[in-house]
Amino acid sequence: MEKADFIKRLVALRVSKGASARDMSLSLGQNHGYINSIENGKTFPTMTNFFYICEYLHICLLYTS
């Protein structure tokens, strides 16, 4: 997945959940601008934070071989 696609999907999922970027950031234990910086393409989450974001958004990651 391209970075731009990830950002669009993150924004769509966050908005559909009804959460502000600030509230989501704080719920993840990050500073208030964390999600905003991801959505603006300034940073990218670590793998650990990616999993926390998925959990917050109730995204199930399945691996199939």
Describe this structure in words.
- With 65 residues, the protein is mainly alpha-helical.
- It is 58% helix and 0% strand.
- The chain is built from four helices and no strands.
- The longest helix is centred in the first third of the chain and has 15 residues, at 3-17.
- It is globular.
- The two termini are 18 Å apart.
Q: What can be said about this structure in brief?
A:
This protein is mainly alpha-helical. It has helices spanning about 5-15, 20-25, 35-40, 45-55. It is built from four helices and no strands.
Q: Secondary-structure blueprint of this entry?
A:
Elements: H1 3-17, H2 21-27, H3 34-39, H4 47-56
Low-confidence stretches: none
Shape: globular
Number of helices: 4
Averaging pLDDT over every residue, what do you get? Answer: 94
